[in-house]
Amino acid sequence: MSTIDNSQSDKTDISLGELLGRAAETPDLPLVFLYDGKPVKPSYHVTEVKAGQFSALDCGANPEAWSEIFVQLWDIEEGERTHMTAGKFSAIVRKVSEHVRLDGSAKLTFEVSDGVGPMQLFSANAPAVEDGALHLTLTPRPASCKPRDRWLAEHKSNKTRCCGSSTVVECCG
Q1: Which of 7, 40, 60, 70 is the most exposed, fewest CB within 10 Å of its CB?
Q2: pLDDT score, position 166
Q3: Where are the domains of the chain?
Q4: Is the pLDDT of residue 138 over 60?
Q5: Average pLDDT for residues 44-63, to the nearest whole number?
Q6: For residues 76 and 114, is the Cβ–Cβ distance under 8 A?
């Protein structure tokens, strides 16, 4: 069975460990999630943190296995609250880890809803400090075809090797 290597993932798909590492560097900064071109409301809640171990068969009949952490955000307006700090977010995850095994290298998925619209799935870009807050931009998580994705990655790396040297004309021209 093929295991997905989360450490090689694109930085638009960070792991829980990467997020917690960045939060530890800036524990007192507000943690602001951005999705659909806007920030979450200051009174958002982390309503669930879930860990999953998945086994599947992809559309090319290849067995797959991976770990994934789901963080559910409820984007609501409630009182005069402000965005939680990165340290508070880390404390929530620490509390969860007392009861649920969390793999720091696991794929990180955010489930976001305002409690009215349907839940949407997002991956997270690398966190960045901007305007006195730790910003985490969430990107919609599209469906994909793993055999096609592997084929594209393989051919992209072959072209890079080939076209990155003096043999450009021979293999790319």
Answers
A1: 7
A2: 46
A3: 2-142, 144-173
A4: yes
A5: 95
A6: yes
